[in-house]
C-alpha cells in the first residue's frame, strides 16, 4: 500500500511532505527528551529490526479460511504495536518514517510520495491506532480486544486516507478506491490485530520493563477525545462525498411501504435532517449534520457505558 | 528465486565509473530526475518522448554500472505490481480533470475505454517506470552507509543522520538473524502453508518470531546505546563525516544530467 512516484501531482506531495516533516521533527524531539533519556541510537537500531520484521510474509488464509487466498500473503506494519509498547504515538511516527525511508530506496514507495506514505501509515495509523486502544481501555474493554481494535484501526484508517489522496490526485475514483483499499486493508487488519495481540503478550512476558503499561491508564481523556474528534471530523468531511444522493435501500423500501399501506398516518413525521443535510447550507450542511449525528451517537454511547459501569460497580459492591 | 538485502548490497560493491561517482551527485541527479518526471503534465503525448529520453539516459548509466541483468529484472518485477495495478484501471475511469472523453472501445459490462484515460494511465505508468529506474540505479550503485554519509554531507539533520546510520548498520545483522530463525524453523519442518497444524498455532509461531526479533533488536539497541554512553555519547554528539571534494567526472555527470533534463524539456517542445 505504498504510493509510488508519479501517482500524486508534485504540488500535492509537497503538502503531505510539509505535514510529515512537522510530525517527524516533533517525534525526534520526543525520542530525545520526552523519554527519560536521549534514546535516539536505540530507536535507530530498533528501526532496523522493524524493517526486517516487515519482510516476514504471513499467509492470508491463516486468518480467513478461504482456499482462494491460498497464495496471497501480507506483512505486518506494526505502527499501533510500536505506539502501544512505547506508550506514545510519536514512536510510531519515528519508526515508520525510518522504515519507509529505507524501503523507498529499495523501490517500495516513492520518494516524492514518501510524505503521503509517512502521513498515512505513521501519523494516521500511529495516532488513531494508539488512541483508539487507549479509548477502548478507558471504556474498560478487555486488553486483547482493545489491542486488536487499535491495530485494526491503524490499518483501515490509512487505507481510507490513501483512497482519498488518490482521489484528490485524480488517479482513482473515490467510492471504488475506498471499497477496494478498505476491503484489502480490512482483511490485512484482522491479521495485524491478531499478530499484535500475540506479540504484545509475548513481549510483556519476556521484557515487561519495555512496555510502559502504567502510562496507558494515565493518558488524559482529553487527548483521546481530541484524536477521536479529528477522526470523526475527517469522517464527517469525507462522508458527503461518499454518500450517494439516491436514497439507500432501507429508506427507499420504507418510503414505498409507508406510501402504500399507512400513507397519511406516518407521513407527517419528518426526519430531522432530510437527505443527511441541514437545509440551506449545501455541502457544509451535510458535514455539520454528520458531525452532529456522530456527536449524538458518541454521547448516547458514553451514557450507556456509564450506566453499565454503574450497574457493574453496584453489582460488585453487593457481592 | 529470491532477492535479498545482501544481493542489493553486493551490487553496490562492484567497481564501475558509475559506482565511483560521489554519492551526493547520485542523490542529486536521482532527485532531479524524479521531481522532473513527477512534475510533467498529467496527460500529454510529448511526455513519452521526454520520459523516453531520460529513461534512455538512465539505461546508459545502468549499462556503464555493469549491473547484473537478472538482478535488474527482479528489482523491476518487485517494484512494478502496485503501480501497474493502478495504471491499468485508468482507461475505464472518468478522470475529474478531463472535460470530454473520446470512447475508443466499448467492452461488455458497460466498460468504456477512453482515449484520455489511456493517455493518462500510460503517462503515470511511464513516470513511475522512470522514477523506479532512477531509484534502482541509485540504490544499486551506492552502498547504504555511503548513502547516509552523502545525505549528511548534503545537510540531513544530525539526529536523522544518526538514526539512519544506526539503522543501516544493524539492518544486515537483523536480516541474518531472521535468516537463522527461518533456518531453525525449517529444520523443524515449520511451514506457514502446512495444513496439518491448526491455523492458530501457525499464527502464534509467526507472532513469536516477530516478538523475538523485536525484543532482540530492542536489546541490541540498549547494548549499543550503553556502549555509546561509555564512550562519551551525549545529546550534541553527531555522526562524523569527512569533507569530500567533487572530482571532475562527478561535476561532469551532474552537468550532463541537468543538460539532458533541459534538452528533454526544451527541444521536444519544438517538434
Word description of this protein:
- The complex is a heterodimer of chains A (319) and B (271).
- Chain A has 319 residues and is mostly helical.
- Helices cover 71% and strands 1% of the residues of chain A.
- Chain A has 11 helices and 2 strands, in the order ααββααααααααα.
- In chain A, helix 3 (79-85) packs across helix 5 (114-138).
- The longest helix of chain A is centred in the last third of the chain and has 37 residues, at 282-318.
- The N and C termini of chain A lie far apart (52 Å).
- By secondary structure, chain B is mainly alpha-helical.
- In chain B, a hairpin with a 3-residue loop joins strand 1 (103-107) and strand 2 (111-114).
- The longest helix of chain B has 32 residues, at 199-230.
- Chain B is globular and about 65 Å long.
- The chains are: A mainly alpha (319), B mainly alpha (271).
Q: Return Rg of chain A in Å.
A: 22 Å
Proportion of helical residues of chain B: 55-70%
Form type of chain A:
globular
Please report the distance between the alpha carbons of the first and last residues of chain B: 45 Å
Mind telling me which CATH architecture of the largest domain in chain A this is? Orthogonal Bundle
- Oligomeric state: heterodimer
Helix content bin of chain A: over 70%
Main sheet record of chain A: 2 strands, antiparallel
Task: Let me know the number of strands of chain B.
Answer: 2
What structural class results from the helix and strand content of chain A?
mainly alpha
Within the largest sheet of chain B, what's the order of strands?
A: 1-2
Overall body shape of chain B: globular
Average the pLDDT over all residues of chain B and give the rounded result: 85
Distance between the termini of chain A: 52 Å
Domain count of chain A, please report it.
Answer: 2
Give the strand tally of chain A: 2
Largest interface, and how many residues on either side? Answer: A-B, 68 and 82 residues
Amino acid at each position: 500500500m505504498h504510493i509510488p512516484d508519479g501517482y500524486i501531482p508534485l504540488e500535492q506531495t509537497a503538502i503531505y511532505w510539509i505535514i510529515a516533516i512537522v510530525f517527524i521533527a516533533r517525534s525526534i524531539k520526543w525520542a530525545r527528551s520526552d523519554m527519560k533519556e536521549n534514546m535516539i541510537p536505540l530507536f535507530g537500531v530498533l528501526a532496523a529490526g522493524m524493517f526486517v520484521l516487515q519482510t516476514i510474509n504471513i499467509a492470508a488464509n491463516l486468518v480467513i479460511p478461504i482456499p482462494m487466498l491460498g497464495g496471497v500473503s501480507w506483512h505486518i506494519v506494526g505502527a499501533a504495536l510500536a505506539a502501544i509498547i512505547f506508550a506514545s504515538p510519536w514512536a510510531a511516527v519515528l519508526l515508520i518514517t525510518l522504515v519507509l525511508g529505507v524501503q523507498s530506496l529499495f523501490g517500495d514507495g516513492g520518494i516524492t510520495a514518501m510524505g503521503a506514505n509517512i502521513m498515512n501509515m505513521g501519523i494516521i495509523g500511529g495516532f488513531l491506532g494508539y488512541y483508539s486502544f487507549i479509548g477502548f481501555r478507558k471504556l474498560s474493554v478487555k486488553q486483547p480486544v482493545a489491542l486488536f481494535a487499535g491495530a485494526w484501526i491503524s490499518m483501515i484508517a490509512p487505507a481510507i486516507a490513501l483512497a482519498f489522496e488518490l482521489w484528490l490526485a485524480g488517479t482513482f475514483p473515490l467510492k471504488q478506491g475506498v471499497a477496494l483499499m478498505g476491503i484489502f486493508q480490512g482483511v490485512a487488519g484482522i491479521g495485524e490485530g491478531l499478530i499484535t495481540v500475540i506479540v504484545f503478550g509475548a513481549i510483556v512476558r519476556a521484557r515487561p520493563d519495555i512496555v510502559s503499561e502504567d502510562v496507558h491508564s494515565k493518558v488524559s481523556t482529553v487527548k483521546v477525545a481530541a484524536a477521536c474528534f479529528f477522526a470523526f471530523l475527517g469522517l464527517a468531511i469525507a462522508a458527503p462525498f461518499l454518500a450517494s444522493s439516491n436514497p439507500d435501500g432501507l429508506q427507499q423500501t420504507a418510503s414505498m411501504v409507508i406510501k402504500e399501506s399507512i400513507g397519511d398516518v406516518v407521513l407527517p413525521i419528518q426526519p430531522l435532517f432530510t437527505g443527511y443535510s441541514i437545509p440551506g447550507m449545501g455541502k457544509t450542511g451535510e458535514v455539520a449534520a454528520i458531525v452532529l449525528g456522530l456527536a449524538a451517537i458518541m454521547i448516547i454511547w458514553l451514557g450507556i457505558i456509564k450506566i453499565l459501569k454503574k450497574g457493574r460497580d453496584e453489582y460488585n459492591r453487593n457481592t | 528465486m529470491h532477492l535479498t538485502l545482501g544481493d542489493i548490497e553486493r551490487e553496490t560493491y562492484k567497481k564501475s565509473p558509475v559506482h565511483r561517482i560521489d554519492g551526493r551527485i547520485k542523490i542529486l541527479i536521482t532527485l532531479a530526475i524524479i521531481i522532473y518526471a513527477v512534475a510533467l503534465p498529467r496527460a500529454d503525448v510529448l511526455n513519452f518522448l521526454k520520459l523516453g529520453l531520460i529513461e534512455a539516459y538512465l539505461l546508459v548509466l545502468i549499462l556503464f554500472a555493469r549491473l547484473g541483468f537478472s538482478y535488474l529484472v527482479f528489482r523491476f518485477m518487485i517494484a512494478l505490481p502496485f503501480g501497474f495495478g493502478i495504471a491499468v484501471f485508468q482507461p475505464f475511469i472518468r478522470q475529474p480533470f478531463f472535460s470530454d472523453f473520446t470512447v475508443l472501445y466499448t467492452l461488455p459490462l458497460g466498460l468504456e475505454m477512453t482515449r484520455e484515460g489511456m493517455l493518462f494511465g500510460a503517462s503515470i505508468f511511464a513516470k513511475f517506470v522512470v522514477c523506479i529506474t532512477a531509484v534502482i540505479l541509485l540504490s544499486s550503485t551506492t552502498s547504504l552507509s555511503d548513502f547516509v554519509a552523502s545525505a549528511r554531507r548534503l545537510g540531513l539533520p544530525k539526529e536523522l543522520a544518526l538514526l539512519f546510520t544506526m539503522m543501516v548498520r544493524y539492518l544486515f545483522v537483523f536480516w541474518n538473524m531472521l535468516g537463522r530463525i527461518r533456518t531453525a524453523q525449517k529444520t523443524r519442518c515449520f511451514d506457514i502453508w502446512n495444513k496439518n497444524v491448526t491455523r492458530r498455532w501457525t499464527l502464534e509461531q509467526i507472532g513469536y518470531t516477530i516478538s523475538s526479533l523485536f525484543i532482540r533488536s530492542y536489546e541490541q539497541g540498549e547494548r549499543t546505546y550503553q556502549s555509546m554512553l561509555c564512550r562519551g555519547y551525549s545529546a550534541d554528539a553527531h555522526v562524523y563525516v569527512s569533507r569530500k571534494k567533487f572530482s571532475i567526472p562527478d561535476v561532469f555527470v551532474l552537468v550532463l544530467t541537468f543538460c539532458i533534463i533541459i534538452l528533454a524539456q526544451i527541444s521536444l517542445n519544438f517538434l
